[in-house]
Amino acid sequence: MIGRNIRYPVLLNEGIMALTLLASQGFGVSPLGPDGSHDPTSALSSTNSSSLDDSGVASISTALDMVVHILSPRGRIFPPELRSNACSLLTTIGRRDPDVLLDDEKAALLSEVREAARPALVALANEPIQSLDVPQSPTSPVAPSPSSRGPNLVRNAAVRTLSVWGL
């Protein structure tokens, strides 16, 4: 569902939230396997690499490709909440319980996800902090609207993801 179409951001967000909830069970990387049992890391990563279309732009063929696209500079077309939720998914998948050791296959999948998403996350984390210059009168303070928090919302989510990953 995540890797299919960028036309419906609400459906993308729902898919990302579903994977985030699945990944939150246990220790971040679900013990379930790729044989239809909904492992978020397996669902997100794939051995299929992105291919280039006729215009030389990487096509989106997996859920991981879509998450990286959402976080990339081209992903600014998506609502900040969707981009922040994509960071939350990566945070949840990447968190580690020190008492749980990953098998080699899961560690390789986690490494693949981290390597694919790291450049976009670092770029987001390095964006300058946007000031929230909201005019306020002394008698009626105005809270910033959710859309005015957008750039910082995504930046802060990327910083949090990198922090959880230990980068």
Overall pLDDT: 75
Structural class based on helices, strands and sheet pairing: mainly alpha
Work out the strand percent. Answer: under 5%
Shape: globular
The CATH class is identified as Mainly Alpha
Region (Disordered): 32-55, 131-152
Biased composition (Low complexity): 41-55, 135-148
How would you concisely characterize the structure shown here?
This protein is mainly alpha-helical. The protein is built from six helices and no strands.
Explain this structure to me?
The chain is mostly helical and 167 residues long. The protein has a single domain (9-45, 54-132, 144-165), classed as Serine Threonine Protein Phosphatase 5, Tetratricopeptide repeat (Alpha Horseshoe). It has six helices and no strands. Helix 4 (80-94) runs antiparallel to helix 5 (104-125). Residues 28-38 and 47-57 have low confidence and may be disordered. Residues 32-55, 131-152 are annotated as: Disordered. Residues 41-55, 135-148 have a biased composition (Low complexity).
Write the layout of secondary structure elements.
Layout: H1 9-23, H2 40-44, H3 63-71, H4 80-94, H5 104-125, H6 150-165
Helix pairs in contact: 1-4, 3-5, 4-5, 4-6, 5-6
Biased composition (Low complexity): 41-55, 135-148
Region (Disordered): 32-55, 131-152
Key words describing this protein structure:
Serine Threonine Protein Phosphatase 5, Tetratricopeptide repeat, 49% helix, 167 residues, 6 helices
